[in-house]
Structure to design on (1054 residues):
């Protein structure tokens, strides 16, 4: 007995010696040893709080290692260490406080602590305060993102504390913004929260709106209690609350007895079939609702088929009730959201304008070649779309040969021009030249070429879409705020469209070719007698129009998938652009592209889920528009109008 | 004008009717249902569909070959006709199935239950179960048959009135009709258009209430109906284009302004021919799609209408039999090529597989026809009958020498 007591005393003093040695974080860990060993979500909280709140430098290491399942317990004395595997089944233990290795142990002598996912999440939350002040800025940002994704009340204090010492101004701004959002949700009193809400009432970012909307989450309640934070009254039968739903609410509240639906009544009738009859009505007659009601009424004397749910719910009190109990807070949030909504609306208009400009420049780019061949020369080229496609495929092929995307685009643009210029010249020489006086037949012949070219492209490149990758510096978008943004490719296309507008004007107004083209268009015979060769001019002009289509193809290929049908997707819109704008005038084409682009975006905005409908309505609008201005927005007058 | 004089003026009508009758009789004799079975049911259907295509080609020839309006929208009218008859076929057929399946229930179903079940069956695929308003008449064959004629007719009337009154002509009109077709196709592609969006209407080959009649018999019935429609359409077209009315139409084609100055209401003539051909196209579509079995918005895509122009151009514009021959020839040859029955041509380094290259061949031959043989296949008949137009070249000689031109005057 004595021996045992002595041994116990010795053991105790030994362990207390070990304790003394492992003072610091080990002490905290030992205090909560039972909870840590158990690792249950319900009991672990005090342990985590104690570790995080110990103020010891090793606290963060402990939590991290624990979370990563790298914390081990030595079986012989129950002390905690972090461990690394140095050989198979052998681990080197490190002391938390000093970081020094304390020895190598076999796996059998150790117990690994495996916190479950719930516990790991709690450790993660506790780690936040350390991460917020981590010297590595990316980890601080990660921590902010983590808080934003899953905010908790406990984050408020550490976040607030970390702002003081923040050195990076960008991170500091984000921290302050996040602090405001957290204050809105978890602030300690009404005044703080309302002040925070008012401070964000000019902020249109998605986070702010999300935070305010969560604050205003509500449900519809029948006859809410006096102390509930009531919003507006809801009338049953409106969009917010159907009659049936309102009735269900009343039934749930016990204010109304359940009224069986027709299906339930039918099920009831099925259960009460008696010798080929239900409630005295023969089964064969039950093929009208009226007969069924009669049978049901016979079995349920209290039931009245004439009572309508709408009458029952009509004058009852239905309110939306906010989950947030504080009325001052919800009122402030509503006010703030209202003012934000106005700002968002303004910004959305701006965004819509940018989208419209971008779509207009795409249409303009696709149509500018047509503006030359159709607008200036009066030749209908249904294969114009296929020239666009050829340009895009040229870009694709160049990218297969030149891996550098920037260089390959720079090579592809002139190459696409050359390829489609050659194709255009060949087509003009072989086909169109013979049909100058038969416009309808030009349309048909070029259509024949169009289906042949499309099928050839399909045979060569297959039916699947080919990628035409834009250089890295065109990736991404110019983001003004959470509402207004525009991708760099679209800006590039806008710039390209401007360049082509300038190029077109320059060629037509300032060069010999342009002068001759205009002369031949106005009067070929007179031009010929002045020493201009009309054949050559027609050929070059047609080639120029086709070549521009090729360049447009490269640009379009950068954001659309390159398939053999790429061209036919644009051909009708391109013709529309030229016709709506007014044939024979580049400014008309520009106006047409702008009108179609803005119109389509505008219609899409009214019905965002349905771009098909937008296109449909736009075409119908154009058909009607042509009624009033058959010659387009900018019509040529006098002799130039022809006919 | 009596019929006798019509046939006397146009002997080709009688020849055509005789050929059509013999063809129909021949197919019937060799069909699986009524004869030796030499021609398979699926081929009988192909032939029946081809007859419908010939009918719409006839309509296209009236509007383009005779009046000079290159409409790229007539296949839209064809599709609308198909949709209209398809709605009835699908409704009634689904109703039959639903009623049969519900007959086993102990309590007989009410009307509204049946309607709800039909709606669920038809529109479940687009995530809806309500009948859209445009299905209001789908329970009645008579009403839907009226719609087959009325909807394309009305659409053509409104569109044509808008277009012709603002004097949209030539290629502008072509582009505008193409845009109309595109708008219609895009509209039908939407799921909430009420016509099952992309899925279209299917199962149209089954005639409601005639489940016990095998498809082989139904296919011959449809062949007869298509042949009858084509025959009637041909006689009607011949009647329209002969006589004074036809002369005005041709006058509009050749010089619209001159006809207008002569005091004719060009717009009314054009509107009439545009609308009546749209109606013919709708009828053709209503006969075509029950044989095809399925209709979806892709059928209406603008390209289909352009193919229609291709058929008529290859067959020969401005003559009725030319359009019929063109449609029959190109669509049959096309299905022959794309069916993979034509042997591939090995070139050593590359094998020309006609399934892939047929469209290229068609495209280029179309260019060739436009360039070198504007009269199309029908022009061959001129060689045979010796109807050759004088080779007119050179300038007008001016008012004194009438319409003669330099070379003719020299002769």
């Amino acid at each position: 007995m004595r021996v045992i007591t002595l041994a116990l005393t010795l053991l105790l003093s030994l362990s207390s010696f070990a304790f003394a040695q492992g003072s610091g974080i080990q002490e905290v860990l030992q205090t909560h040893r039972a909870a840590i060993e158990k690792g249950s979500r319900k009991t672990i909280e005090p342990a985590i709080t104690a570790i995080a709140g110990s103020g010891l430098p090793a606290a963060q290491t402990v939590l991290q290692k624990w979370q990563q399942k790298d914390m081990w317990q030595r079986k012989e004395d129950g002390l905690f260490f972090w461990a690394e595997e140095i050989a198979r089944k052998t681990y080197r233990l490190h002391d938390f406080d000093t970081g020094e290795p304390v020895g190598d142990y076999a796996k059998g002598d150790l117990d690994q602590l495996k916190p479950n996912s719930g516990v790991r999440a709690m450790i993660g939350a506790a780690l936040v305060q350390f991460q917020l002040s981590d010297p590595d800025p990316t980890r601080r940002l990660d921590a902010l993102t983590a808080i934003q994704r899953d905010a908790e009340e406990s984050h408020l204090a550490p976040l607030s504390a970390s702002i003081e010492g923040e050195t990076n101004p960008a991170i500091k701004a984000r921290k302050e913004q996040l602090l405001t959002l957290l204050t809105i949700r978890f602030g300690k009193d009404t005044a703080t929260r309302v002040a925070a809400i008012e401070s964000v009432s000019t902020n249109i970012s998605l986070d702010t709106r999300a935070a305010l909307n969560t604050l205003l989450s509500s449900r519809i309640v029948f006859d809410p209690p006096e102390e509930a934070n009531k919003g507006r009254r809801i009338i049953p039968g409106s969009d917010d609350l159907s009659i049936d739903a309102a009735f269900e609410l009343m039934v749930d509240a016990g204010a109304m007895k359940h009224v069986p639906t027709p299906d339930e009544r039918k099920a009831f009738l099925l259960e009460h079939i008696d010798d080929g009859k239900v409630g005295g009505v023969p089964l064969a007659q039950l093929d009208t609702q009226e007969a069924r009601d009669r049978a049901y009424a016979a079995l349920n004397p209290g039931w009245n088929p004439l009572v309508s749910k709408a009458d029952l719910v009509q004058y009852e009190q239905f309110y939306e009730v906010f989950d947030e109990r504080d009325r001052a807070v919800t009122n402030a949030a509503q006010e703030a959201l209202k003012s934000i909504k106005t700002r968002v609306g303004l910004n959305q208009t701006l965004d819509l304008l940018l989208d419209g400009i971008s779509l207009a420049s795409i249409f303009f780019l696709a149509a500018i070649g047509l503006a030359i061949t159709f607008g200036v020369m009066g030749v209908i080229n249904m294969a114009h779309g296929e020239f666009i496609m050829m340009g895009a495929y040229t870009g694709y092929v160049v990218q297969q040969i030149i891996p550098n995307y920037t260089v390959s685009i720079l090579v592809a643009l002139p190459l696409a021009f050359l390829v489609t210029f050659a194709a255009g010249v060949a087509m003009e020489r072989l086909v169109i030249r013979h049909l100058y006086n038969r416009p309808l037949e030009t349309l048909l012949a070029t259509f024949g070429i169009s289906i042949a070219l499309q099928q050839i492209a399909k045979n060569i490149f297959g039916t699947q879409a080919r990628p035409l990758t834009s250089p890295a510096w065109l990736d991404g978008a110019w983001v003004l705020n959470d509402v207004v943004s525009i991708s760099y490719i679209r800006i590039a296309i806008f710039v390209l469209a401007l360049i082509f507008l300038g190029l077109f004007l320059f060629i037509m107004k300032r060069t010999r070719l342009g002068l001759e083209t205009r002369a031949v268009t106005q009067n070929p015979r007179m031009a010929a007698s002045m020493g201009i060769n009309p054949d050559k001019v027609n050929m070059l002009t047609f080639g120029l129009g086709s070549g521009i289509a090729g360049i447009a193809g490269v640009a379009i290929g950068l954001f659309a998938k390159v398939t053999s049908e790429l061209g036919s997707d644009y051909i009708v819109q391109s013709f529309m652009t030229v016709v709506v704008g007014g044939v024979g005038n580049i400014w008309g084409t520009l106006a047409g592209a702008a009108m179609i682009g803005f119109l389509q975006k505008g219609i899409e905005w009214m019905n965002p889920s349905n771009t098909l409908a937008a296109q449909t309505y736009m075409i119908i609008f154009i058909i009607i528009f042509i009624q009033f201005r058959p010659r387009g927005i900018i019509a040529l007058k006098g002799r130039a109008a022809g006919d | 004008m009596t019929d006798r004089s019509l046939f006397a003026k146009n002997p080709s009508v009688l020849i055509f009717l005789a050929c059509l009758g013999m063809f129909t009789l021949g197919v019937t004799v060799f069909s699986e249902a009524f004869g030796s079975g030499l021609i398979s049911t699926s081929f009988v259907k192909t032939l029946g569909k081809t007859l419908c295509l010939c009918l719409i080609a006839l309509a296209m020839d009236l509007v383009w070959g005779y009046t000079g309006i290159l409409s790229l929208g007539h296949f839209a009218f064809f599709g609308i006709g198909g949709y209209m008859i398809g709605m009835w076929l699908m409704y009634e057929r689904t109703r039959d199935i639903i009623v049969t399946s519900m007959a086993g229930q102990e309590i007989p179903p009410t009307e509204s239950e049946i309607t709800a079940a039909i709606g669920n069956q038809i529109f479940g695929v687009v995530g809806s179960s309500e009948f859209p308003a445009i299905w209001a008449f789908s329970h009645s064959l008579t009403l839907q048959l009226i719609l087959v004629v009325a909807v394309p007719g009305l659409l053509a009337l409104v569109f044509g009135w808008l277009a012709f009154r603002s004097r949209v002509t030539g290629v502008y009109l072509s582009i505008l009709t193409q845009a109309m077709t595109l708008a219609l196709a895009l509209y039908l592609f939407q799921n909430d258009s009420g016509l099952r969006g992309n899925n279209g209407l299917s199962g149209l080959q089954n005639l409601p209430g005639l489940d016990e009649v095998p498809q082989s018999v139904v296919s011959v019935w449809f062949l007869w109906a298509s042949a009858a429609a084509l025959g009637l359409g041909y006689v009607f077209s011949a009647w329209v284009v002969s006589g004074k009315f036809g002369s005005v139409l041709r006058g509009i084609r050749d010089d619209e302004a001159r006809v207008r100055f002569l005091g004719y209401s060009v717009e009314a003539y054009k509107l009439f021919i545009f609308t009546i051909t749209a109606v013919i196209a709708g009828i053709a579509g209503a006969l075509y799609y029950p044989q095809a079995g399925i209709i979806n918005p892709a059928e209406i895509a603008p390209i289909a209408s352009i193919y229609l122009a291709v058929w008529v151009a290859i067959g020969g514009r401005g003559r009725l039999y030319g359009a019929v021959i063109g449609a029959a020839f190109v669509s049959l040859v096309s299905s022959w090529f794309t069916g993979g029955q034509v042997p591939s041509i090995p070139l050593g380094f590359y094998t020309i597989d006609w399934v892939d290259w047929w469209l290229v061949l068609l495209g280029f031959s179309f260019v060739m026809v436009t360039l070198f043989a504007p009269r199309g296949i029908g022009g061959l008949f001129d060689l045979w009958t010796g109807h050759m137009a004088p080779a007119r070249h050179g300038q007008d000689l001016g008012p004194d020498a009438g319409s003669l031109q330099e070379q003719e005057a020299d002769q």
About this structure: The first strand of chain A starts at residue 71 and ends at 74. Chain A has four domains: 2-120, 133-217, 220-322, 345-580. Chain A touches chain B through 53 residues (CB under 8 Å).
